[in-house]
């Protein structure tokens, strides 16, 4: 704990047997109270490896629910277990657990409601192995989204995130997609609610065992992200209403 705040790390996992131990061993347990791993019906021994490592809570989906569906299980369980701050850490070691303290302290101290680990803030994205087409699309999408959503974020597409309990309790993420666009829909809802978002530089690591989506799914994801931004813009302007932002009451 930090200042009596219970910190839970959630790990959405799919075929992460080879990288799970390295990821888990770097978690700073001097501040992290519990770890939850949700295995989204992996084809390898991810769940067995998680249990061998002694992870506090291991949940195995009997059917693949998708990246967004996995996160829904993660956050639901974390809230049920009394988390004050929830950190999402991928089990494939693409994001370093060594940044968890930097992600958590700004939330504990009331500076931000959400923290993102951005691969773009530094200069190492391409050197770290990010494919050029993903880097270009990331920069284009982020630029367009910042304009439409009135933000100045360095990146909307990182999977390394930390949330305060009040954000998770007051954001309707359960109605979001079960696919990869879940992340973007959630950020759109958080921004619509007026919560403060901070960012820290996160090293980029792309390697054979790290999970990644192919070009066609990346294209589908990009279209979905632009859809979120356009809906956000139209609803803020009062020209349309969308289920995505229903019942969200902006702070203040």
What do these coordinates show?
By secondary structure, the chain is α/β, with parallel strands linked by helices. It has a single domain, classed as Alpha-Beta Complex (Spore Coat Polysaccharide Biosynthesis Protein SpsA, Chain A), CATH 3.90.550. Helix content is 39%, strand content 14%. The protein has 8 helices and 7 strands, in the order βαβαβαβαβαβααβα. It has helices at residues 17-25, 46-53, 66-80, 100-108, 132-149, 165-170, 182-192, 215-237; strands at 7-13, 34-39, 57-60, 85-88, 114-118, 161-164, 197-201. Strand 1 (7-13), helix 1 (17-25) and strand 2 (34-39) form a beta-alpha-beta unit. The model has no long low-confidence stretch (mean pLDDT 94).
Secondary-structure content class: alpha/beta
The second-level CATH architecture is Alpha-Beta Complex
Strand order of the largest sheet: 3-2-1-4-6-5-7
Q: What is the CATH superfamily label?
A: Spore Coat Polysaccharide Biosynthesis Protein SpsA, Chain A
Low confidence ranges: none
> What is the share of helical residues?
25-40%
- Quaternary arrangement of the chains shown? single chain
- The whole-number mean of residue pLDDT values reads 94
Shape: globular
Radius of gyration: 17 Å
Total discrete domains:
1
